Amino acid sequence: MSKPLDDVDRRIIDQLQEEGRRPFTRIARDLGLSEASVRQRVASLTERGVIQIVAATSPIALGMIQAFISVRLSGAGLEQASERIAAIPEVDYVAVCTGRTDLLVGAVCRDNQHLLEVVTRGIRQVPGVVETDTAVILSELKDSYRFAEAARAEAGTDD
Q1: Could you report the per-residue pLDDT of 68-83, keeping only the tens digit for each?
Q2: Cβ contact 40:27 at 8 Å
Q3: Is there a single domain that holds both residue 68 and residue 130?
């Protein structure tokens, strides 16, 4: 099991969620830490897979099609099916779900025809896939990476 997050880790994460390019010197000053300490903690959080520091882009703003595909599987083979679907280049998100949907798959495509090919020649061809339901994103109303309040609530802090 990975090392649990402490309050300092959560506060660093909160600052980076607010502004992903915030300089370590500023975070250190705001939190009363040394820059070396912030740099070391961010490196540890990154290595442990707790955070990723990336440029988040909007496929819609780039003129692309973004869709979420609900996938139902038959019988066993969840791990194999999810690995095969995750290997499809257009797929950018795969999650195991509860309920009627076994997997929720995100895909970014050039256009509707490209999306059709990804679903019919890619996802539906994976052994075990019995049903798909595709929802194309028409407009994003909210896309936020800020969920620090939930992390603080879990830790029992209200900063």
Answers
A1: 999 999 977 899 999 9
A2: no
A3: yes
